Amino acid sequence: MRRIKLSPSALSCDFAAAGGQIRQAEEGGAEYLHLDVMDGVFVPNISFGQPVVKSLRKCTDLVFDVHLMITEPIRYIEDFAKAGADIITVHYEACSDVEATLLKIRACGKKCGISVKPGTPAEVLVPYLPICDLVLVMTVEPGFGGQKFMADMLPKVRFLRDYAETHGLNCEISVDGGVSASNAALCTLAGANVLVAGSSVLGKADVKKAAEELLAAAEMRGARNE
Ligand code: DX5
Ligand code: ZN
User: Closest by alpha carbon to 4, among 164, 127, 184?
Assistant: First the structure.
């Protein structure tokens, strides 16, 4: 079975205690840290920018999975690369030149990802898959944590996984929004191998246990049984 990676979203942290919470997520098996950057234009919310990414970089070695929900992200790729991003994901809908944006991420020496909002079909991504390291399927409308998982997005995940396998492409497939222990197995069965989770991991009192339970559910085994 494909190895499942957990990418807890820092949006659900208590930022005054973020270092400890992130360490707990790591102890619970997280490999990535998802960082949601919102500009109040592409999405109706504002989160944080490069200074927060840079300061979190000092407290963990997790892979930084930066999700840019900003208009024309090409303008800020270098800044996020310098701040410590490992993977930079941009939205198809936010770029006037998607290919140039992805190539800019590559030119900065980082892995690149592309994401679609729920209303955008996965097929639009086909031309870009050969140059992408990761595809992120939104399972809520981007902008806020704590929303309800949209199971009707799973066929997009299946389509992308089948397409990648048929064409020998090695991109990771990530789901983001409302992911929890109750739907994690649906996501991995559809072909996702990276699970982004905010409220169900860093939003919980026992972050380590929440991370372990989510990974166990995703891999369809009992928590702490292996
Ligand atoms: C939403 C963000 C998500 C969010 C997920 O726009 O992209 O990464 O933090 O939070 P939950 O898991 O609470 O839906
Ligand atoms: Zn996100």
Answer: 184
Q: CA of 160: how far to CAs of 122, 126, 184, 189, 192, in Å?
A: 7, 8, 17, 13, 9
* Distance (Å, whole) CA 104 – CA 106: 5
Helix (H, G, I), strand (E, B) or coil at 114: strand
Enter the CATH code of domain 5-219: 3.20.20.70
pLDDT at 222: 60
CB 118 within 8 A of CB 147: no
pLDDT single digits (tens) 99-124: 999 999 999 999 999 999 999 999 99
Coil, strand or helix: which one is 225? Answer: coil
Token pair 């026992």 in the structure block, residue: 206
Q: Which residues contact 156 (CB under 8 A, 6 or more apart)?
A: 116, 121, 122, 137
- Segments of the chain with pLDDT less than 70: 1, 222-226
Question: Tokens for 76?
Answer: 């800020």
Which-ligand-closest: CA of 178? 1
The domain ranges of the chain are 5-219
pLDDT at 220 (0 to 100): 84
193 sits in the region (left: phi over 0; alpha: psi -120 to 50; else beta) called alpha
> 53-63, pLDDT tens digit by residue?
999 999 999 99
Neighbours of ion ligand 2 (CB under 5 A): 36, 67, 176
Mutation pick for ligand 1 pocket among 35, 180, 199 (CB with most ligand atoms within 8 Å): 199
